[in-house]
Amino acid sequence: MPGQSFNQANREPLAPEYDGGGFPGHLKMAREALALSPVRKPLIWLCLTIFAVIVATAFGQLVLNRWNVPFYDALQKRDLPAFLHQLVVFAGIASGLLVLNVGQQWLNQMIRLKLREGLTRDLIAEWLGPGRAFRLANAGTVGVNPDQRMQQDAGHLADLTTDLGVGLLQASILLVSFVGVLWSLSSGFVFHIGERSFSIPGYMVWAAFLYAGTGSLLSWLVGRPLIAQNSERYSREAELRFSMVRVNQNIDAIALVHGEADERRHLEADLKGVLDALRRIFATQIRLGWVTDGYGWITVVAPILVAAPVYFAGDLSFGGLMMAVGAFNQVHASLRWFINNVGAIADWRATLMRVGTIRSVLVAADGLHDEQERIDFAESRDGSLAFDDLQLVSPSGCIRLSEPHLRIKPGERLQVTGEAGAGKTLLFRALAGLWPWGKGRIELPKDKQIAFLPRVSYLPPGTLREVLAYPSSGAVLDDKDLTDALAAVGLERLATSLDRVAPWNDELTSDELRLVAFARLHLHRPDWVIVDEGFETLDAAAHQRVKDMFEGELASTGVIYFGPHRHNGGLFGRTVHLAKDKRGPVLKPVRVKDMAKARAPA
Questions:
Q1: Do residues 310 and 316 touch, judged by C-beta distance below 8 A?
Q2: Pairing of strands 397-401, 385-394
């Protein structure tokens, strides 16, 4: 049957705002999503393998660090044979580390790929659960641009998580490995002040911790605003992207009324928001650069300055000095991982919050308006469709049918009319199970195929054959049946394009898009058809073809049509009216966050 799509201009906002959950909650959400993902086992094996590679690399770094002593001592003594021997040793160590580094890079990319797959699959599965995408689209500003959060933000989160996770693991292992080396080297450091001599156990270790700790604290204090600034930037970017897509989709109408100047002003305003957000980020990054780059330059001489008193006292050889410097640099590099990644951590946290927020909303939206009365949906045994004391509530009011008790028998044709804004689309959505809020009872025929035709027809990408078969795109349909369906609605010219891939939504006119939807009915022969306005835009010839189809091939199909009475054309035997009930209840907007808290277990 035809796919269900809805006119975005007729949205009923369920939740006007959502300010996201806490960071720990979003982190837990991400872990749970990956724990249930089919990529979990490959991801675990990749993580274990890269852990082993990083440990092996750390061991190689230790060997390389010890190599400094004989190499620089050979230089100091001008011992050419020893110098050449150490070059051969270096070649072996470097070759092993090269293999490990390339292997680690490959594993890094594979982890990134699997994370991206797992996160995106999870978000798509949650988004395309029954009715979820519709509820998200009506969940206020958080439902804007879910495509960006699932595609761009999920990919960005996978990249940042992999880079930061692997980097932190590597820094931790190197820190543990070289702290022991640096502590051992420091044990022989003796300081001479006048006639007094004393030693500080682990002197260079404490110096490295103090040096890196000071830099980390300053970096965090200066770079912390990047978390909120990055989050704001992504929101502004999403608004600009949404505005550009909107203009592109409506460019014909804009050009016809010469609205380019007005649209340009709107886009420039959105662009200004993006640029202002970027300026604030750049200003913070410049301030952070003073700290990180300053520490980077000081680090060039810091380890030598720390070990210089012992070296100049003659208690340390040149090779020992270089080994101590190398160990200090490794420890410091591990400790300054945080300094180097303050901006990336802020970006990661902001991205996680955005991805976590949309997933939380998707899950929580199932419980929107839990305290609101809901329509009782039941199955009819005789194949009929019935309404009993039906009352629909929305933020804009309450609506009722003119007949409180209404039963439509199989094959019967009913037209539902009402003034503009009376709520015809709302009742259409209620029949589809997308709008459950209200009172009364709706009985739907049991084990019968019901086709819903929304106001705006949706044609998926692919060949025309797949479009006509949608949503059963994999079904095998006979060419004659496809050709007959197109001919029945006056689209014979498309019979030669069954296997052509084209952007059908752009290539066909709005009337032709509607006729393709009716051609689907000719193919699928549903038991019931529920249409939200569709005859109004058709010309007389197309209208007659559709009428003939319902009176011919679909003569036994029950029809409920939401639209103006003037297009009845004798097709509908009964007409009921839909009107607002000014004394009825109103659906109060709720915040998804508050609802989620109310549903959380104590």
A1: yes
A2: antiparallel
